[in-house]
Amino acid sequence: MTSTLQTTPAPDRLDLLADPVAAAVRDWAVPGVPAGELLVAEIDPDMADTAEFCARYGMSLDTSANCVVVAGKRGGEIRYAACVVLATTRADVNGLVRRRLEARKASFAPMSDAVSATGMEYGGITPLGLPPEWPVLVDPAVVGTQQVVIGSGLRRSKLLVPGKALAGLPNAEVTEGLGVPVSTD
């Protein structure tokens, strides 16, 4: 599959990134991954959802990652985490993530909460630029991907980053078993 994406170094096109993502790129300090290796591509915002994006731009699902915001509740307290898994898997929200958040119940955060807490558009939420108190759980398969497509904080663009860069993000925790294969039943 040949990609039709036109990329440019993300530091050169901060206008294609949500404000907190642009700040994270400006302040980039992941060892061994220069900011110039972070690429951004402008896309049709109607094609931002993973399956449509991959089909339209010639990308593979196994090199695309989703970042989901999970809310864990316990005793009236809500704790958030971001989970980054390959598009061919789903995050183990009710098992591994719930236990990591020490919550009685965990679920995907409501859209309005995720958007207001991150400063990003729904469908474009990315692990770069998240609130500093949130753990960022990253599946090892994402880290092992040479270049992975993730959101940019906006629906009108995507970031392409070395998978290993996500392991170096602040509060990143490479979490074995986070990504569970999607059932084809």
Question: Which helices and strands, and how do they pair?
Answer:
Layout: E1 7-9, H1 19-26, E2 39-42, H2 50-57, E3 65-74, E4 77-86, E5 89-91, H3 93-100, E6 105-108, H4 111-118, E7 136-138, H5 140-143, E8 148-151, E9 157-161, H6 163-167, E10 172-174, E11 179-181
Parallel strand pairs: 4-7, 7-10
Antiparallel strand pairs: 1-2, 2-9, 3-4, 3-6, 5-11, 8-9
What are the key terms here?
single chain, YbaK protein, 11 strands, 6 helices, 185 residues, alpha+beta, globular, 28% strand, five-stranded mixed beta sheet
Summarize, please.
The protein contains 6 helices and 11 strands. The chain is an alpha+beta fold and 185 residues long.
Write up what this structure looks like.
The protein has 185 residues and is an alpha+beta fold. It is 22% helix and 28% strand. It is built from 6 helices and 11 strands. It has helices at 19-26, 50-57, 93-100, 111-118, 140-143, 163-167, and strands at 7-9, 39-42, 65-74, 77-86, 89-91, 105-108, 136-138, 148-151, 157-161, 172-174, 179-181. The chain is globular, with a radius of gyration of 15 Å. InterPro entries: YbaK/aa-tRNA-synt-asso_dom_sf, YbaK/aa-tRNA-synth-assoc-dom. Residues 45-166 form the YbaK/aminoacyl-tRNA synthetase-associated domain.
Helix fraction? 10-25%
Number of helices: 6
Q: Looking at the structure, what is the overall shape? A: globular
Mean pLDDT comes to: 94
- Give the beta-strand count: 11
Assigned CATH architecture: Alpha-Beta Complex
Report, as a whole number of angstroms, the end-to-end distance. 26 Å
Decide which structural class fits the backbone. Answer: alpha+beta
